Structures
1.
Amino acid sequence: MSGCRVTPSAFTRPDAVGGADVADDKTKAAPQTAELISLTEEYEIAYWRERFGVSDDRLAEAVHRAGLSAAAVEAHLKLSERVN
């Protein structure tokens, strides 16, 4: 991900009614876009950290190596567990 900067605007979704972008609802414990991992919001980091059972640093390293896809990060973490 060298040279790639992740911004909160990268994690908006079109509003079903008006077609405008709507950011995640931060009052929820889980991200609204559960297919992608965002490391820009503390509540999302906490969700993914708990879901995968890893530290912040391990989560960030896995996202750096596998990308933003939750499935790819999960696969990377599982493979890393088998290797170690």
Note: The chain has three helices and two strands.
2.
Amino acid sequence: MATVFCSRCGRNNPAGSSFCQGCGAPLAAPAPAGGPIPSGVAPTPGAAPAGWAMPAGLPVGSGLVNPTPGPGTQAADVRALTDTKAGAVFAILGFLLSVVGSVLFSTVGGLGLGVSCTGTTCSTTSVDTGVLAGLFALIAIGLVFGILSVLKFRSAFQTLVPVDYRFRSPASLSILVVIGSVLLLIGFGLLLAGAAGIINSCSGSYNFTNCNNAVGSSVGALLGGFAALGLGGLLAFIGEILVLIGIWRLGTRYNEGLLKVGAIFVIIPFLDIIAPFLIYFGANSALKQRTGGGGMVGAGMSPFSPPGTG
């Protein structure tokens, strides 16, 4: 079956198409039987006309350039926006857990110890290690939700890579957030373990020498924790920047301002609180436009189809 070739993005469209289903560019009409092959029409399915070249600036093997969604990208767009909504939900849950953790942490007075000394002997009020374990659990769960959020955003970017090469970098480098988050979790664990060792050794009545020995034995865990936190924070920061770039490009692709604003608010203190909500509502709005407002596309129907077509 003959196909109509788009000289703008390289897509092969069904015979009789007037516009490219990938990028929306007008297509040349097929030549009469036995006549010359007009420019822009492939002589055989999957073959480009002689002399046609990939548009300038498009990396080789990167897929099509479809800055404007069309019928040919319907499935990819719907799946990407659905994953974006899920990523925003996980981000919201992670934020709520962080709020709960901060409130509990302030309630127990942090990790500070009340110390009173007489001569070389001091007494302290220690913090129950169960509190530390609970705090670590909250941090771990919050990071898990953060990782799930990034993985969903990354899935959205990966879905769009074959039809829009602008998502290549966010799709590949956003994994740094996951690696960095794991290192952050390890770092917090080491720090809390070191703190717990010092608290247990220095609680109650103790001698300075014994307490100093306990501190010395926890130095390794504390240094390891700080190193893991530093490296993990750096990797997570780089990956987060790529995630934000990807979300911004989602807003550009779907002409949805809420996605762009949400991407910017993530890096602004206090405004970052509402960022995942903006991303969710922005993705939901774009998804409704892609699916005609019903959330699903009916069989044989496309929200991109002109009036009167099925």
Note: The helical segments are 74-107, 129-160, 168-173, 175-202, 208-217, 219-253, 257-265, 275-290.
